[in-house]
Fold this sequence. Notes:
The chain is mainly α. The chain contains five helices and no strands.
Amino acid sequence: MPRQLLSDALEQAERSEPVVRAAALLHIARVLNAFDHAEAERVLDRGIALAADLAEPDEELEGGLDRPIVDETHLGGTYALNVHSEALSTREFLHVLCDKLGLVVTPGRREISMLVARQG
């Protein structure tokens, strides 16, 4: 039974958006470690590789929301975030992120600079 649940969770993770998939794979590896250490290592490696590819999380979130995210927190520095979620979409993950970190996302209009490249 637990093995089937983990298998189902892996399949669900693979169908999720990259930012959600990376978090899910890391969590699944932690649970899987109790049953199959070698398989847990393989899943962990996939999760870490995917997380490393998501160098700019805001870009990943923007892609899933189809609009830019403007940081108006006025916080400086770099933060390491560790958020576990069962969200299946970027929008759901953003809600979890806001709830866990006390952030507020407000839709609005802003003038922003953007580089647009077109094939000539």
